[in-house]
Specification:
279 residues; mainly beta; Methylamine Dehydrogenase, Chain H; six-stranded mixed sheet; 0% helix
Length: 279
C-alpha cells in the first residue's frame, strides 16, 4: 500500500547523493517528466509503477518512460487499493466533469477513468490510506470510513503529512512534525513510535511487515517488523515527494521513491536505488 504526502514537515536540508543511488545506464531525462508529485504506488496486479501528480496519473516503465493515464486531475491524496483499483482526491482539470474539490474518487481500471464515491465538493484529502483498517483521509480533519461512503471524524495529536495502513491488520502510521505516530485501532487512538526517525512520507508493504519511510531531506529508512525497528538506507540527494513499497514476482521487496529530481527504484529491500528518470 501507499500513502501520499501532504505538506512538508520541516525545512529541507540539502545533502550529497550516496553511492547507493545510481543514475540510469542510458542517458534518460534530465528532469522529471511531471511536476508536483503527490503519491506513488505499485499496482499489485501487474507491478506497474504509478505516479500521481498535479497533471494526472502517469505510468513509469523500466526504461524511465512516463505515459499519462486517464484525465487530467490534480491527484492530491492517492492510494493503490488493489489490482487496477485506485482511490484519490484533489481537483478536477479542464473538461473533467467532477466537482471542486473532487472528494473521494475511485478508479477500477488503473486510472483510465474515475468515479465519484463521496464528499464531492467537500473534501480535498491531502493524505489517504486504505488497508485492513478501512479508509483514512485527512482534509484538515482526520476522517475514517469502512466503505468510503460514510465517514466519521477521528482525533490525532498532530496533522499528518502522510498516512499508511497495514494490509494485514488494524495498524496505521502517520508522519507528523511531532514524529511518527502509530494507531493500533484503525485511527481511533494514537501513540508515538519510540526510536523512529522523523519521516516526511511512509508506506506499508503488501507483506504486512515491510515499512519504508523517507526523511524530508531524502534519507531512506526501512523497517522489516512493522515500524518497530528501523535500518538506515541511502540518501537520495534531493527532497522527497512520495514513497511506495511493493513486491516483485520472486517475492523481493521493491521500494520506489520520488524526489524533486528523480524517480528512484530499489529491488533489494532499499539497500540501493537506481534512477529510472530524472537526475
Amino acid at each position: 500500500m501507499v500513502a501520499a504526502s501532504a505538506a512538508v514537515l520541516l525545512g529541507v536540508v540539502g545533502c550529497t547523493p550516496s553511492q547507493a543511488v545510481s543514475t540510469p545506464a542510458a542517458s534518460g531525462a534530465e528532469t522529471l517528466p511531471f511536476s508536483h508529485v503527490h503519491g506513488v504506488g505499485f499496482d499489485p496486479g501487474d507491478g506497474a509503477l504509478l505516479v500521481a501528480t498535479h497533471d494526472g496519473l502517469f505510468v513509469v516503465d523500466e526504461a524511465g518512460d512516463a505515459n499519462r493515464v486517464g484525465p487530467v486531475i490534480d491527484l492530491m491524496g492517492f492510494v493503490v487499493a488493489g489490482p487496477e483499483r485506485l482511490l484519490a482526491s484533489g481537483h478536477p482539470g479542464p473538461d473533467v466533469d467532477l466537482p471542486e474539490p473532487v472528494g473521494l474518487i475511485e478508479s477500477t481500471d488503473g486510472g483510465r477513468s474515475w468515479d465519484p464515491v463521496s464528499r464531492q465538493g467537500e473534501s480535498d484529502f491531502h493524505a489517504l490510506a486504505t488497508g485492513d483498517a478501512g479508509i483514512l483521509g485527512y482534509d484538515g480533519e482526520l476522517r475514517r470510513s469502512t466503505d468510503g461512503v460514510a465517514w466519521e471524524p477521528a482525533d490525532i495529536p498532530a496533522p499528518p503529512a502522510a498516512l499508511a495502513a497495514s494490509p494485514t491488520g488494524p495498524e496505521v502510521l502517520a508522519t507528523t512534525s511531532q514524529g511518527l505516530l502509530r494507531s493500533a485501532d484503525g485511527g481511533a487512538t494514537w501513540s508515538e513510535v519510540d526510536g523512529a526517525p522523523l519521516l516526511q512520507v511512509v508506506a506499508w508493504g503488501e507483506d504486512g511487515a515491510t515499512v519504508a519511510g523517507v526523511e524530508p531531506s531524502g534519507t531512506v529508512w526501512v523497517s522489516a517488523d512493522g515500524a518497530a525497528t528501523w535500518q538506515r538506507g541511502p540518501e537520495t540527494g534531493a527532497p522527497v515527494q512520495a514513497v511506495a513499497v511493493g513486491s516483485a514476482d520472486d517475492g523481493a521487496v521493491r521500494i520506489a521513491v520520488v524526489t524533486t529530481e528523480a524517480v528512484l527504484l530499489s529491488e533489494d529491500d532499499g539497500q540501493t536505488f537506481e534512477a529510472l528518470t530524472g537526475l
